[in-house]
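Contributing new complexes? Match this layout with zinc ion.
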Amino acid sequence: MILTVWLEIHVKLKTPTKLFCPCPNSQNDDDEPMTHICPICTWQPGALPALQPDAVTQAIRLWHVLHAIINPCSQRDRKSYFYPDLPMGYQITQFWEPILKQGSISYFLDANYTQTKTSSIKEAHLETDTGKMIHIGNKTYIDYNRAGTPLIEIVTWPDFSSADEVLAFLKHLQKILQRNDISDADMEKGQMRVDVNISVRKNDTDPLGTRVEYKNINSFRAIGRAITYEYELQSSALTEGTSWDQCTKRWDDLSGTASVLRSKENALDYRYQPEPDLPPLVLDTATIAQQKHNLVDLYEIITCMKDIRWLHKEYINLLLIDRASYVYAKELIDQGYEPKTVLKRMAGPLAAWANTHHATPWTTPISPAMLAQFIDFIKEKKLSDSLAKPLLDQRCAWWSRESLIATLPQSKTIDYTQLCHDIISSFPDQVAQFRSGKESVIMFLVWQGMKLSQWWADATILKEHLITILRAS
Ligand SMILES: [Zn+2]
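Output block (do not edit by hand):
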C-alpha cells in the first residue's frame, strides 16, 4: 500500500501588529482576553482594513528561505463561513493569487545529516487568524485578541510517503522559521498548526486515493500517530475492497483515535470572492531585495559543514542552537576563516560557557574579533594550540576583568634556550630532582616556563628544549 501525504501549515507570523489594524500581535497565550482589539479586528460597522507592512516583510523573508516565486501583484479574497470565533463572517485570505508560489525545502531525514530530501511547496498565502473559543464548564467564551493576527499558510504538494518524512520536513521548517525570526512556531502555543491530508492507494500507478484531512494537529507526536492510524484504516479498507468518503477528521491524541468533523467540502462551500476593501498587494523589486539580508539557510549551512569530514554532528548542532550562534560563526567565516577552525573554537569553551549560563556563544565575553585574534595567534605560532583552550576558558571565567589578550605582549619570538636557562636558575630544587632521576618534575618546570613566557611559548617545543639542556649539562 502506498501512502501519500500533503500538508497545509498555518504559521503565526512574528510582527508587532495585526494584519489589517495596529492592534498588538501578542505572542503570549495568557494576555487578558479582549485587550488587543479595535473596531477593525472585531469588524464593527463602517470599519475598513488597512494593511500593516510587517507581515508582508515576513512573507518576503519566507520567500527567500523557501526558494519560491514571489507574486509581484497578489490579491486578497474573502473566504466566507460562519463561526463565533470569526467576527467578520469571513476570513481575508489569498485564494486565486497567493503571495508565494512554487517553492521547495531541502532537509535531512536523519539526525546524522546523511540522507536528504527536497519537498515542493505549492504556494503560501497571507491571511488573518480567527479569535479563540474557550470552553469552561458548560459555557463557551470568546477572546478576539487573536482575531486578525497574521498567518501564513504554507501548502505543499503531495510529496511525502511516510510519517518520518513528514516529521523531518516539519521539524526543519520549524527551525527555519525560528532561526529567521519569522515565527516562534511553538506548536504547543498554536503558533504552528498543521492540517494533514492522507491518501492511500494500492499501486504507484493508481491515481491518488480519496483523501482524508486531519485538521489543526499541534504536536509532532500527534501528527506521526494520526498518519499511522489513517494509513492503517485506509489500507484495510482497500484490502477489504470497501471505499470511504472524503472528509475532515479531528485527531484525539489521548484516545489515539479520530472522529469525523465534517464530510466533503470544497472551494464552492466557502464562496470565495475578491476582497473589495483592499487593493492588490504590489511588491517592487527593491522592497523584495532589501529583505534578503541576514537570512539563514539551514540546509546550506549543514551541507557546507558536512563537507568537513571530521566535523561531527555536535558541531553542526552548535550552529543550529539559535540564529545568533550562526551569525557569530558567519562573521568570522565571511572574513575568510576556515569554518572548521571557527567551529572548533566555538564548540569548546564558548559553547560550554553558553551552556552553563543558559546563553549563546554570541553573548560570551569572547567577541568574534577576539576569537579571530586567538585563531591568528595560533596560526602564527604565537600561542600554542594546547593553551588556547585554557586561555579561552579563563577569559570566559573572568567575565568582568580586562581582556586577557590585551595584557599579553603584542608579538613575541621565543628564545627557547634563554627561556630554559631562566627556568633552571629560577627553580634549582626541581632541576636537582630531575637530574637525580625524578623526571616527572619536568611538567612543573614546563608550566613555570609557560608562565615566564607569558603563555607565548609552545609547551611541546619548550619541553624538548628543556630536557635536552638538562641532560647535556
Ligand atoms: Zn484591531
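Reviewers usually confirm one structural detail per submission. For this one: The chain is about 40% helix and 20% strand.
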